[in-house]
């Protein structure tokens, strides 16, 4: 019996798909952790974990005091 994917992975995969499709372009600002939590109806820790996963995948970058942005694509 398949198990449901963890919510933070669903969020990360959704954002990653938007980046790969070009819907989100390098330099685009992502919603705040609070906005993501509200949009996906999850706890802020879950949204934060999703952003951490995207950062680990090098798809996003954080700028202290400014926000989180889609990373420049590396060739």
TrEMBL record:
Molecular function via GO: DNA binding; DNA-binding transcription factor activity
Domain HTH gntR-type: 5-73
Keywords: DNA-binding, Transcription, Transcription regulation
The protein's name in its UniProt record: Regulatory protein, gntR family
Keyword Transcription regulation: yes
Stored InterPro entries: Tscrpt_reg_HTH_GntR, WH-like_DNA-bd_sf, WH_DNA-bd_sf
Pfam families found in the cross-reference section: GntR
């Amino acid at each position: 019996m398949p198990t449901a994917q963890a919510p933070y992975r669903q969020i990360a995969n959704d954002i990653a798909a938007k980046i790969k499709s070009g819907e989100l372009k390098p330099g685009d600002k992502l919603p705040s952790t609070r906005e993501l939590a509200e949009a996906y109806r999850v706890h802020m820790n879950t949204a934060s974990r999703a952003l951490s996963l995207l950062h680990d995948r090098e798809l996003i970058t954080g700028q202290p005091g400014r926000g989180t942005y889609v990373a420049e694509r590396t060739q």
